[in-house]
C-alpha cells in the first residue's frame, strides 16, 4: 500500500532525521528546500512508552520553564525533539500505570475498557474501618476488545511488544501474544522468536532488564556479569533494549511496515540504578559523596531535582532512546531504496503518567525506610497518582515523515488516547466507527497542518475527561479551553475541596496557572456549574463508578445505621440469590455480582494473590437480588448499593487489613455460593456445545465423559477438590473445540487460560 507523505529535503534525498543522536553533538545546520510531496510506502511506527517519566524529567521540557538547567541530562531525547515536534499540553489518560496503558492500547477511556487503576479484579473492600472503598474495576483488558496491533495488522503491519505490559491480572493473562502482537512473550515471559531471543540465554531472558532489583540493597549488584555485564561507556547491558534492537534488525530488512511498542520498566520505583558510573556522575554534579547507606538520599520536602539514583535512571532511558534511533539510522530501508529506516518511521516518545515525587522503598542501615524525593514536577502540582497536572501531564515527542524539525506545539491538548486513531491514519487506514474510539487522529497536528485535534466526524475536540475513583486521590475531571474542573468523588478520604476550578491557560494558549494554585470556584460560579453539568452527564453516560461508603466505618457517617440487612442467601440449580430487609432502612437502588473463577486453592496457579474476581449484572426485585452463576464460578458475592451509597455484601467479607489486598478472600467466606451453581452452569454450556458438535459429526467422546463426571460430582456434598477438578476438566473439554462452537470461546471459559485452571 502506498500513501503520500510530506518530507523535508526530499528534493536532495536528505533528511534531517538522519542526523546522529550524540550526547554532545550540536543539531546540524541544514539549508532546507521547500516542502515537497514524495511517494512513500506505509511508514513504520515505534512508540517508546516510558514508565513514570515526568513532564519536567526531559531536559528540553525543563529548560522551557526554568531559567537554570536541571540535574537530569537527556541529550538524545532532546535531539529527537529538535528533529521533530514537542507537545507541551500532552496528557496521560490516568495518573497511574495500568489504566493509562489500557486506554492507550484500546483507544478508550477506562470507564469503557473497565481498567480504572492498578491492582484490579478484586472484591471491592475497605481498608480497615476507613469510611470509603474503591469501586470494582478490572485489572485486565477484555480480550474481546480490539487493540492497536490487531488493527494495524489489517493494514499489513508486523507488530511487537517488548517490556512492561501491565494490562493483565495477577495471573499474567491476557498476554501481549494473546491480544494480537506478532512478537512478544506469553505467560512464561519467553519471547516467541528464538532467532531473536534464545530461550537458553539467561542474559537476554532477564525479563526486567536493568530494572532488575539488587539482591540486598541498592548499592550492590551494579555489574552482575550474568545479567548486566558492562558494555559501551561502562553502561550495564539491558535485555529489553537488546530485544527491541534485534527485532528491528530482523523486521526492518523485510518488505513490510512494522509497529514496535517498546515499554522500558524505568523510571518506576523502587528507585535504584544498576549504572554505577552514572550514579557517581550525578552525585558529583550534586556536590555530594557517593552513598554508603542504601536508604533515603534526598530530602522529600526539598525543591528541585536532587536524587542521583533517579537521575541515573532517566539517563539510562535517554541511552535506550539513542540505541533505538541509531538502529533506525543504520538500516537501509528495503521499501525505500536510498533511504534509511529512520526516514520513513514515526518515533513517538511518551510516558504513562506523571513522575513520582516521594517514595520510601529502601531501608537505611538502621533498618528503617524513610521517604525520599524522587523527582520534582514543579511548576506542576503533585505527581503520580494525583489528578493534578503533575500526575497526568507527560512529555510527548514525535519525529517522522512530514514533521517539521524544531516544532513546539504549545496550545493543542493531546492524549495517549489519540495514538490508536493516529496510528491508523499513519498506516493509511480509514476511521472505523465500530471501534468506538475516544481519541482523535492527531497526525495533521503532528505534521503542522492543523492546530486542533478532530474526531473522525470532523468535530474539533475542545474537552478532555478523566476519571480516577481510587484510594485517597479520587477525582473526576473535565478540561476545556484552558479551564479545569476537579470533582472530589471520595470526599471522606481525599483531602481536597468538593470542587476545584483552575484556569490553566489563557485564551491565547499562554500559561496562566498550570501549578493549580488558585481555586476559582467562587469567582466563576457559572463556569463551575457549566463544567460540572457536562462532567456529570459524561459520568452518567459512561456508568463511571465512584467510591462507596463503608457501613463498618470507624468514623460515624450519616445513614450508617440505615443500611439494609441481608436475611438469607441460597441457590436453586444455576440461579443464586440473596434476600434483604429494608424495613425502616434505606432502599437498595443497585446490585451486582462479583465472582471468582479460581477461588479456593485447587484452581490457583501458584499463590493466594493470584485469586481474581470479575463483575456481572444482577437482577434486583423487592427484597431480593438474583443472578445466574457464570459457568465455572467457584465463589460469588452480591454487592448491594443503598440510597445513601453504602455497599452491603450478601455475606461478611473481611476488610483489607484482616486479609491483605492481594489475599484469598474466598477462603474467608462462609457460603460464597461455592462451586455447585458454577459447575451446573458449566454443565449446561457443555451440554449445548455437545449438541452442536454432534450435529457436525465431531467426535465428542472426551466431552461426553467430562459431562458425565461433572453430573456425578454435583450429586455429592460440596467439597473443593472434586468440584474444582470437575470444573477444570469440563472447561478444558469444552475449550478443546475452539473455532467449532461458540461455547468454547466464552469469556468465562478463557479468562485465565492456564493449565492448572
Fold and architecture overview:
By secondary structure, this protein is of the alpha+beta class. The chain folds into 4 domains: 2-122 and 139-446, Alkaline Phosphatase, subunit A; 469-479 and 490-547, no CATH class; 560-668, Immunoglobulin-like (Sandwich); 676-750, no CATH class. It contains 16 helices and 27 strands. The strands form 8 sheets. It has a 7-stranded mixed sheet with strand order 7-8-3-9-12-4-13, sandwiched between helices. Strands 15-16-17-18 form a 4-stranded antiparallel sheet, covered by helices on one side. Helix 6 (239-251) packs parallel to helix 8, helix 7 crosses helix 8 and helix 13 packs antiparallel against helix 14. The two termini are 44 Å apart. The model is unreliable at 1-38 (pLDDT under 50).
Give a quick rundown of the structure:
With 757 residues, the chain is α+β, with helices and mostly antiparallel strands. It contains 16 helices and 27 strands.
End-to-end separation in angstroms reads 44 Å
Summarize the amount of helix as a percent range.
10-25%
Main structural class: alpha+beta
- What is the spatial order of strands in the main beta sheet? 7-8-3-9-12-4-13
CATH topology of the largest domain: Alkaline Phosphatase, subunit A
Let me know the average pLDDT: 92
Radius of gyration: 27 Å
Low-pLDDT segments, ≥5 res? 1-38
Tally of individual helices: 16
User: Which CATH class of the largest domain?
Assistant: Alpha Beta
Q: Can you tell me the CATH superfamily of the largest domain?
A: Alkaline Phosphatase, subunit A
The CATH architecture term of the largest domain is 3-Layer(aba) Sandwich
